[in-house]
Amino acid sequence: MSVPGDPAQPDSESCRGTTSSKEDAKWLQWVTHQFETIAGEDGEIDLQDFKKALNVKESFFAERFFTLFDSDGSGTITLQELREALTLLIHGNPMDKLKFLFQVYDVDGNGSIDPDELRTVLQSCLRESAISLPDEKLDQLTLALFESADKDCSGAITFEELREELQRFPGVMENLTISAAHWLTAPAARPRPRRPRPLTSAYWHNHRSQLLCLAAYVGLHVLLFALAANAHRALGASVMVAKGCGQCLNFDCSFIAVLMLRRCLTWLRATWLAQVLPLDQNIQFHQLMGYVVVGLSLVHTVAHVVNFALQAQSDTSPFQFWELLLTTRPGIGWVHGLASPTGVALLLLLLLMFACSSPCVRRSGYFEVFYWTHLSYLAMWLLLILHGPNFWKWLLVPGILFFLEKAFGLTVSRMAALSIVEVNLLPSKVTHLLIKRPPLFHYRPGDYLYLNIPTIARYEWHPFTISSAPEQKDTIWLHIRSQGQWTNRLYEFFKASDPANCGPKRLSRSLTMRRSQRMPQGLQPQPIQSGALAQGAMASHKDVTVELMSYLPKGTPRQGHQGLGCMGTEDRTQAQQEAAAKPRGLVSEMSSENHQFCNIKCYIDGPYGTSTRRIFASEHAVLIGAGIGITPFASILQSIMHRHQKRRHICPRCQHSWMDAVQDEDMKLHKVDFIWINRDQRSFEWFVSLLTNLEMEQAAETQEDRFLELHMYMTSALGKNDMKAIGLQMALDLLAKKEKKDSITGLQTRTQPGRPDWSKVFQKVAAEKKGRVQVFFCGSPALAKVLKGHCEQFSFRFFQENF
């Protein structure tokens, strides 16, 4: 069976299309091999062996398939029985496949499907898709599909009624014509993403700044090497190579620090140079220069070793080889003959730093090793000044900038300790921190900061994206997923903490905190009631809800605490009625077990800008977040909502609303497509309240004025190309149309099963013609490669934020 996977990987099924007869034959060969591996000497397999052979994890479907394949009812399946059944499915017509589907659903075999049988099937479908819904919601799904299919109200669904119902869903009927390789799928290696061709115009469109800078970098090295080698051509080839490499190292070892000047880079993002320089690739260029430094250093060392060996063999040289290489006696160098000893020390220190910077060290729980060895750059600079007579001239300007930035950052970050005032432990081991915002901390949506919590680790600083909007004046939000040693310690620390020990009089502190967190006049916060949670549609976890704020313009009448924003006319009335019918208080009530008010000291360094600062200057922005990669977009979407609200005015008498025609100077957005890909259902609960409020804001707009479109994908859910999910997806579609909200998230936007078909997604974006398209992604590198390839096909600009 299809095994749900990681959202970071491309969807092989969606890219596969109609399976060819050749693939069918390969698949039958795979089934035969699996059968022969499992079957005993009698050449038969029982139910348990059948599960192992076809990787079926849900017992219901395994039993139904087994029963249908066991044509003689012997309790075992022979290879002949299995091949006959599968051949029918592969080469049979759509009617044969539809009959097979009906037999799977007809559990008691009486020729019809009653509501209880359908409920059993849908319950198994939910388990296969890793979806958790309350029993009441499962009943609603069952009745929605049953009542739609039971045309004659006989209390049972016949084969003809099921066929008619399937014909109402063209996509389902289309999938029934696909070969059986989509019904029972062998585990296959994931396809490698197509690598972009570097000589195409689309590749140049997305990489021109990187390529130009790389060409300038290579050209500068060729020039420096040539000039230095030419100046020492009288001393022989080995000296020419050593001096050429040394001159290039003078530049690299000084400029490599400039690439990590985060404050300078953030300032450059606000200038026209951001359109010319590849500021988003500063870390990649830093790593590239690191490799170049190691390579040049080895060549430089080998060239000098060859030169020393030649000198030691000369009759005129009074020194032996080891004296030339390790001592100051030959007087090589401009400071007391220290060139050779410092060169050896530099090479050893460089190799140590290089080894400790490898991904296997940084990502294996040994970040401290990487961090402390990287601090040896100070010792390296000192040794380089003693080693080369001209290095101090190359280091002068970059060194001053570097130390000024470090001194400024250290002063600002340590000037006054901040406090973590609130903590929420969310699903998938995500820690939501609320930090008291410093008065002069100004940032833009999508920025990140460095966080230090002495209680967790005194000397460690880690970068995290700010998930709150700049318009939220009192606190800074961070959503931190536990993926490493430090983040796991953070989560476990708060999980083990007794809420009562986080501070005296917790409820009094809570009330004081909530009253102190007030927005400026005209931007009044209101808790957002999530319809999904109110109806109990999502998995029932009492500890995972997050309260987000809605920004209301002046003149907006308050409607209790329903989070309706500023609705207009009939839409406002309808939304108020819907919200009033829902239970209140479910979003703001959080378990004290996972929601704590505390006062823990911390320090922050930042903010620092990222590629997401370009979003507001885009015309059509496509925001793609995978898992916790939503955090920069959470800040951006909240800020977009705030700016949109600032443009709206409401007459206090007649409640008529209108929008200013003039937008912010730095906001050129005409359309925003937000795509969020999650592995499981619980992950959607991180920001469901924010998305609910965004949808409500959009509901007040006319169709032409709606600028935001949400697209939600759940990769663990089986799609309509899997027989086990056909009934479930039909039921979800019917209930979503009836209730005008999705049963999985509670949003109006329907959650799509599986992974996106990126070709179709980008084709739709291109067809809208809302302006120049720019794609912004935050997530895993594997998915980034896939998206970059598709963007180059459509000539979209692609920007990636690493996290």
From TrEMBL:
<dbReference type="Pfam" id="PF08022">
    <property type="entry name" value="FAD_binding_8"/>
</dbReference>
<feature type="domain" description="EF-hand">
    <location>
        <begin position="93"/>
        <end position="128"/>
    </location>
</feature>
<feature type="transmembrane region" description="Helical">
    <location>
        <begin position="332"/>
        <end position="357"/>
    </location>
</feature>
<protein>
    <submittedName>
        <fullName>NADPH oxidase 5 isoform X1</fullName>
    </submittedName>
</protein>
<keyword id="KW-0560">Oxidoreductase</keyword>
<feature type="transmembrane region" description="Helical">
    <location>
        <begin position="211"/>
        <end position="229"/>
    </location>
</feature>
<feature type="transmembrane region" description="Helical">
    <location>
        <begin position="369"/>
        <end position="387"/>
    </location>
</feature>
<dbReference type="InterPro" id="IPR017927">
    <property type="entry name" value="FAD-bd_FR_type"/>
</dbReference>
<keyword id="KW-1133">Transmembrane helix</keyword>
<feature type="transmembrane region" description="Helical">
    <location>
        <begin position="249"/>
        <end position="268"/>
    </location>
</feature>
<keyword id="KW-0479">Metal-binding</keyword>
<dbReference type="InterPro" id="IPR017938">
    <property type="entry name" value="Riboflavin_synthase-like_b-brl"/>
</dbReference>
<keyword id="KW-0521">NADP</keyword>
<dbReference type="InterPro" id="IPR011992">
    <property type="entry name" value="EF-hand-dom_pair"/>
</dbReference>
<keyword id="KW-0274">FAD</keyword>
<keyword id="KW-0812">Transmembrane</keyword>
<feature type="domain" description="FAD-binding FR-type">
    <location>
        <begin position="413"/>
        <end position="527"/>
    </location>
</feature>
<dbReference type="InterPro" id="IPR013112">
    <property type="entry name" value="FAD-bd_8"/>
</dbReference>
<keyword id="KW-0106">Calcium</keyword>
<dbReference type="Pfam" id="PF13499">
    <property type="entry name" value="EF-hand_7"/>
</dbReference>
<dbReference type="Pfam" id="PF01794">
    <property type="entry name" value="Ferric_reduct"/>
</dbReference>
<dbReference type="InterPro" id="IPR013130">
    <property type="entry name" value="Fe3_Rdtase_TM_dom"/>
</dbReference>
<dbReference type="InterPro" id="IPR050369">
    <property type="entry name" value="RBOH/FRE"/>
</dbReference>
<feature type="domain" description="EF-hand">
    <location>
        <begin position="137"/>
        <end position="172"/>
    </location>
</feature>
<keyword id="KW-0285">Flavoprotein</keyword>
<dbReference type="InterPro" id="IPR039261">
    <property type="entry name" value="FNR_nucleotide-bd"/>
</dbReference>
<feature type="compositionally biased region" description="Polar residues">
    <location>
        <begin position="11"/>
        <end position="20"/>
    </location>
</feature>
<dbReference type="InterPro" id="IPR018247">
    <property type="entry name" value="EF_Hand_1_Ca_BS"/>
</dbReference>
<keyword id="KW-0472">Membrane</keyword>
<dbReference type="Pfam" id="PF08030">
    <property type="entry name" value="NAD_binding_6"/>
</dbReference>
<feature type="transmembrane region" description="Helical">
    <location>
        <begin position="288"/>
        <end position="312"/>
    </location>
</feature>
<dbReference type="Pfam" id="PF00036">
    <property type="entry name" value="EF-hand_1"/>
</dbReference>
<dbReference type="InterPro" id="IPR002048">
    <property type="entry name" value="EF_hand_dom"/>
</dbReference>
<feature type="domain" description="EF-hand">
    <location>
        <begin position="57"/>
        <end position="92"/>
    </location>
</feature>
<feature type="region of interest" description="Disordered">
    <location>
        <begin position="1"/>
        <end position="21"/>
    </location>
</feature>
<dbReference type="InterPro" id="IPR013121">
    <property type="entry name" value="Fe_red_NAD-bd_6"/>
</dbReference>
